[in-house]
From TrEMBL:
This is Sialate O-acetylesterase domain-containing protein. Keywords: Hydrolase. It holds the Pfam family SASA. The keyword Hydrolase applies. InterPro entries: Carb_Esterase_6, SASA, SGNH_hydro_sf. Residues 9-240 form the Sialate O-acetylesterase domain. One of its GO terms (molecular function) is hydrolase activity.
Length: 244
């Protein structure tokens, strides 16, 4: 691999559950095999100024599926990361993505001390070792917290704690967070989790709403085109609120 561009990196952490990891274009075949169709929309094409931190903590040029070696127990497809990166790179320069999302994970699994959280922190800290600056955490999670009233009630407090912990552990007290208000999950408490996400009053935290984006037949995962749109919404929010 050629030496990665010496231009300063703007680092973005991608985290949460399967809709951040990306299931766009992933279908189940009759014989029960999951398969990604390998269709990469123009908005998600690779670019020399878009990098990705691998599971082995190496910087490489990024391409779909971004989470293939991170959410490795599942088949990954298109997520929002590449369309986000393509939409911000002209403004920010080298976009360096740190994928950390894992499908099917509840907010309690992202508590400090839990494996997912600690892996995310390890990756984030490693990402700045050879220069660059962590600019934002993009977070899309919550579908796994919509089945029980207890989980839905606890969501806001746990999410606020997560943000506090990340900022403290990375020594970035005002780290921008762009989170997604979920559009799928168990109807029972979906609205309660959305309410927490849309109503969060934490400094430097903004929310984009996935409601209205098209879902695949499973009624849980965004389609490839919805992921493209979501990445652009995340980019819009980042550029509007946080880009110099």
């Amino acid at each position: 691999m050629d030496q990665i561009s010496p231009k300063p990196k703007q680092i973005f952490i991608l985290s949460g559950q399967s809709n951040m990891a990306g299931r766009g274009g992933v279908t189940k075949h009759p014989h029960q095999h999951w398969h990604w169709d390998a269709v990469v929309p123009p908005e998600c094409q690779p670019h020399p100024d878009i990098l990705r931190l691998t599971a082995g903590l190496q910087w490489v040029q990024a391409h779909e599926p971004l989470h293939a070696d991170i959410d490795s127990k599942k088949v990954c497809g298109v997520g929002p990361g590449m369309s986000f990166a393509n939409a911000v790179r002209e403004r920010v320069g080298v976009v360096a993505l740190v994928p950390c999302a894992v499908g099917g994970t509840a907010i309690k699994q992202w508590a400090r001390g839990e494996a997912l959280y600690e892996t995310m922190m390890k990756r984030a800290k490693e990402s700045v070792k050879d220069g660059g600056e962590i600019k934002c955490l993009l977070w899309y999670q919550g579908e796994s917290d919509t089945s029980s009233e207890h989980d839905a009630e606890a969501y806001q407090g746990k999410m606020e704690k997560l943000i506090e912990n990340v900022r403290e552990d990375l020594h970035l007290p005002s780290l921008p967070i762009v989170q997604v208000a979920i559009t799928s999950g168990d109807e029972k408490y979906l609205e309660k989790v959305r309410e927490a996400q849309l109503g969060m009053k934490v400094q430097n935290v903004v929310c984009v709403d996935a409601k209205g984006l098209q879902l695949k037949e499973d009624n849980l995962h965004l389609t490839t085109q919805s992921q493209v749109k979501l990445g652009q919404m995340l980019a819009g929010a980042y550029l509007q609120h946080f880009a110099p």
